[in-house]
Write a structure and sequence with these properties.
The chain is mainly β and about 220 residues long. The protein is built from one helix and 17 strands. The strands form two sheets. Strands 1, 2, 3, 5, 6, 8, 13, 14, 15 and 17 form a ten-stranded antiparallel sheet that branches. It has a seven-stranded antiparallel sheet with strand order 4-7-16-9-10-11-12, with no helix packed on it. Strand 2 and strand 3 form a beta hairpin.
Length: about 220
């Protein structure tokens, strides 16, 4: 899980909290009805580009969340809100999300080791299917690596996390490790993004990012 952090530092339209290694992005000080300037909207697949906006939400940390609001029902449509910073390959990422609505899909996820909108890993939880899945997106094509069936309630805050260490990718949901997969397709650092699918209206109120020691330093053999 993401380690607690204590020192706050404001950045443009989003807030970040730092320790020696960890960063926590929140939206309490962000301007509503706008995408924070440190994020970029992008799309994998087809259909409308996502409409990402900060919204008021009394149940969110800081009273605000970043939401994907466009309800285009195109099935192979994956809106991304990319945080415009490159992180090392070995990293732990955690987000708190709420799946609000969607009839084709009702999902929220984390894209990581993102090279561009066509190439990345993504872990997502789906409230219509009640499962968590890990995918590799290569040249815009989504390929499942692993998954688990678990209850994902709608309109409730859930915590989704991934730990990427070398080719080992470990996924947790609400503090419980669900599964691990191994894949070496994307082995170098990249950006982190929030992710949805099809007509999912999903809110995210924080993103925690912690760079990790390399596997060699931890004594982990690839």
């Amino acid at each position: 899980m993401i380690r607690p952090v204590a020192v706050a530092s404001a950045i443009v339209l989003a807030s970040a909290v730092f320790s020696a290694n960890a960063q926590m992005i929140t939206f309490g000080s962000a301007r509503v009805r706008a995408l924070p300037l440190d994020f970029v909207s992008a799309l994998t697949g087809s259909g409308a580009v996502g409409r990402w906006e900060v919204v008021d939400d009394g149940s969110a940390d800081g009273g605000k969340a970043l939401a994907q609001l466009d309800v285009d029902k195109t099935d192979y449509r994956f809106p991304l809100a990319i945080y415009d910073t490159i992180y090392p390959a070995d990293v732990e990422i955690e987000t708190r999300f709420k799946a609000v609505s969607g009839s084709v899909d009702r999902a929220g996820g984390i894209a990581f080791r993102l090279k561009d909108q066509q190439n990345y890993y993504v872990v997502r939880a789906n409230a219509l299917e009640d499962n968590v899945r890990l995918y590799r997106v290569r040249s815009g094509r989504r390929e499942e690596l692993a998954g688990a069936n678990v209850k994902v309630p709608s309109n409730e805050w859930q915590t989704l996390a991934v730990r990427a260490l070398g080719d080992r990718l470990s996924v947790s949901f609400n503090g419980k490790v669900l599964f691990e997969a191994r894949d070496g397709t994307f082995s170098t650092g990249g950006k982190v993004a929030l992710w949805t699918k099809a007509d999912s209206v999903t809110r995210f109120d924080r993103v925690g990012i912690t760079p990790l020691p390399s596997p060699a330093l931890e004594g982990v053999k690839p």
